[in-house]
Amino acid sequence: MASGTRSTSPGSSSTLADLRRTAEAFWPASTAESWDRVGLVSGRDYAPLRRVLLAVDAVAGTVDEAVAWGADALLTHHPLLLRGIHTVAEDTAKGALLARLIRADCALLAAHTNADQPEGGVSDVIARRLGLAGAAPIVPLAADPASGIGRVGALDAPVALRTFAARVAAILPDTASGVRVAGDPDRVVRRVALLGGAGDSLLDHPAVRASDVYLTSDLRHHPAQESLELSAAVGGPALVDVAHWASESLWLDGAAERLAAALPGVEFRVSRIRTDPWDFVVHG
After folding, report:
1. Distance (Å, rounded) from C-alpha 33 to C-alpha 124?
2. Which of 245, 30, 41 is nearest to 117 (CA)?
3. pLDDT tens-digit series, residues 175-205
4. Residues 37, 40: Cα–Cα separation, whole Å
5. Could you tell me if 179 and 169 are in contact, meaning their C-beta atoms sit under 8 angstroms apart?
6. Which of 49, 61, 157, 188 has its CA 20 to 30 A from that of 6?
């Protein structure tokens, strides 16, 4: 969905409570990680719901877009208040964003790790875009083994690592950092492990170690280096590191389509603002 789903009905009788119930049905808060902060951040359940903007991040650009469009809610992947804060004063970044949304009567809610795990979630969408067969969670949920963190599966046919990296770049929106690769460009890749968003916590997982490549974001120097050294000694995956925002942005279109089908009369739009923090790179 390139620009959103527009209803042909004359109006909507939906409220913010309907959006909350629908989001909970699709992405149950109980499946979020224990450290996560998902759900409603600000807003009133009985407020009318006619327009909803989806974005990865609540930042000045997406908040301005939501307000200018007259959105009744901004649904983001990343929670604005993930880490503890002690003030929402408007001389703070988060306080200023919340005040702008509240004054515009635009609610804010988030679906984060609870939207990472299910079918159609962040990692599942990446696996489908890459054409992985038999993709299954790296860390399944006990209550639903078909859902869970990350995905691991196989390409239909083996390809060189350089070819796989080019496929990854082709499905992602452009960012300054592009796609970074660690490994022999001619290495044969078939089994792929991936995790949308920050994923170095799974570098030592057996399913990742048994794969030919691990695709994720925000790989830090030392964990990545140690993983590669271990791979050189006993075997293990090549690494493909992509922009955090880019990997998670692929989820938004499908999420908007599902919400639009469940809430007819409400217009859903996906923000096309790039909220990746980096603007350019300089090579010496």
Report:
1. 17
2. 30
3. 999 999 999 999 999 999 999 999 999 999 9
4. 9
5. yes
6. 61
Tell me the CATH number at 91.
Answer: 3.40.1390.30
Q: Which amino acid is at 22?
A: T
pLDDT in tens, 89-125: 999 999 999 999 999 999 999 999 999 999 999 999 9
- Say which amino acid occupies 254: G
Which tokens go with 109? 């809610």
* Distance, CA of 275 to CA of 62 (rounded, Å): 8
List for the chain the helix, strand, coil content (%; round to 5): 35, 25, 40
Residue 123 burial (C-beta neighbours within 10 Å; 0-12, 13-18, 19+): buried
Do both 214 and 151 map to the same domain? Answer: yes
DSSP character for 200?
G
Cα gap 120→258, rounded to integer Å: 10
Claim to verify: residue 39 and residue 85 sit in the same structural domain = yes
Entry pTM: 0.93
Closest among 284, 256, 276 to 6, alpha carbons compared: 256
> In the chain, where do the E strands start and end?
39-42, 51-55, 73-76, 107-110, 133-136, 139-140, 148-149, 151-160, 179-182, 188-198, 213-217, 238-242, 267-270
- Read off the tokens for 80: 């604005």
